[in-house]
Amino acid sequence: MDRYHLTLTIGSRPVMRGWWSDEATAERKYLQWIGERSGVEGTRITLTDEADGGRLLKSWPDER
Fold first, then answer.
1. C-beta separation of 8 from 37 below 8 A
2. Which pLDDT does position 53 carry in this prediction?
3. CA 48 to CA 57: how far, in whole Å?
4. Measured between alpha carbons, how far is 2 from 25 in angstroms, rounded to an integer?
5. For the whole prediction, is pTM greater than 0.85?
6. Are the C-beta atoms of 37 and 29 separated by less than 8 Å?
7. In this structure, how many other beta carbons lie within 10 angstroms of the beta carbon of residue 41?
8. What is the full per-residue pLDDT of the chain (64 aa) written as tens digits?
9. Please, what is the Cα angle at 42 between 47 and 23, to 5 degrees?
10. pLDDT at 54
11. What is the distance between the alpha carbons of residues 27 and 47, in angstroms, rounded to a whole number?
């Protein structure tokens, strides 16, 4: 099983998912997805660590 899980949702609907075993690859994809879809209203992208109980590593847009 790949460790790093990337999810793209638009509105409340999951549109795309990806899993990678390498964190650097997952982070590159995370940034790529932001670049490709940042102009779409309602877009949310999350990167989680599935080996750590699904811990959220990154989220875009930042909700702070």
1. yes
2. 92
3. 5
4. 12
5. yes
6. no
7. 6
8. 799 999 999 999 999 999 999 999 999 999 999 999 999 999 999 999 999 899 999 999 986 5
9. 10
10. 94
11. 8
Under DSSP, the state recorded for 55 is E
User: Do residues 34 and 27 make contact, with C-beta atoms less than 8 angstroms apart?
Assistant: no
The dihedrals phi and psi of 44, each to the nearest 5 degrees, come to: -140, 135
Name residue 19's amino acid: W
Q: Which uninterrupted H or E stretch holds 9?
A: strand 4-10
Question: Which pair of tokens denotes residue 39?
Answer: 């102009």
At 62 the pLDDT is: 85
Place of tokens 């940034």: 31
- Give the number of other CB atoms < 10 A from CB of residue 8: 21
